[in-house]
Amino acid sequence: FLSTPMQIARNTALIATGRIPEPRFASRIGNQRILPKIDENVMTPSDKKHIDGIRQAMLDVSNTPYGTASRYIQLPMLIAAKTGTAQVVGISQEEKARIKESELEYYKRSHAWLTSYAPAVNPRYVVAVLVEHGGHGGSAAGPIATEIYMKLAELGYL
After folding, report:
1. Ramachandran area for residue 2 (φ above 0: left; ψ -120 to 50: alpha; else beta)
2. Which of 30, 43, 113, 147 has its CA at 20 to 30 Å from residue 92's CA atom?
3. What pLDDT digit, counting tens, does each position of 94-107 carry?
4. Quick one: CA dihedral 11, 17, 20, 25, positive or negative?
């Protein structure tokens, strides 16, 4: 399926908080403050039933030894994350077993994704990173997300 980084960020916010924000790119126009719109009633009973398991899985991705982002996210706080790759070209299963991502031509390499929220408890921020032709989400996008969260912490937001 097709998805933009903003769509991934919005859905990550939904997972993190149970509410879905409407993005805004300005907090003020002239003297008028622009308040975010947040829809609080988008989760079905089934969604609500499974959300804690999804949140725990995202916490494990970035904080357990076998999590796909745990080696690449080094932070003094707990965050929850999901790594991913998006194929640029289709590769048959037989061929994929023989070809490593790094052996593909640059423009045929998969895009690397990482979406995350922090703090893991009472989340306030979502960071979604897309690295075009970056390969694996954890190794390519994890260090970028780490730098963003470190800057948020340095500036006193976390």
Report:
1. beta
2. 113
3. 665 667 777 888 88
4. negative
Interaxial angle between packed helices 5-17 and 45-63, expressed in degrees from 0 to 180 and rounded to the nearest 10: 100
Phi/psi for 84 (5° steps) reads: -170, 165
Alpha-carbon span 127 to 117, nearest angstrom = 6
Using CA atoms, how far apart are residues 59 and 110, in angstroms rounded to an integer? Answer: 24
- Reported pTM: 0.85
Let me know if 94 is exposed, middle or buried by CB neighbors in 10 A (0-12, 13-18, 19+). exposed
Distances (CA, A) of 147 to 139, 142, 151: 13, 9, 6
Q: What token pair was written down for 85?
A: 């790759």
User: DSSP E strands: which ranges in 53-124?
Assistant: 80-86, 111-118
Count CB atoms within 10 A of the CB of residue 102: 8
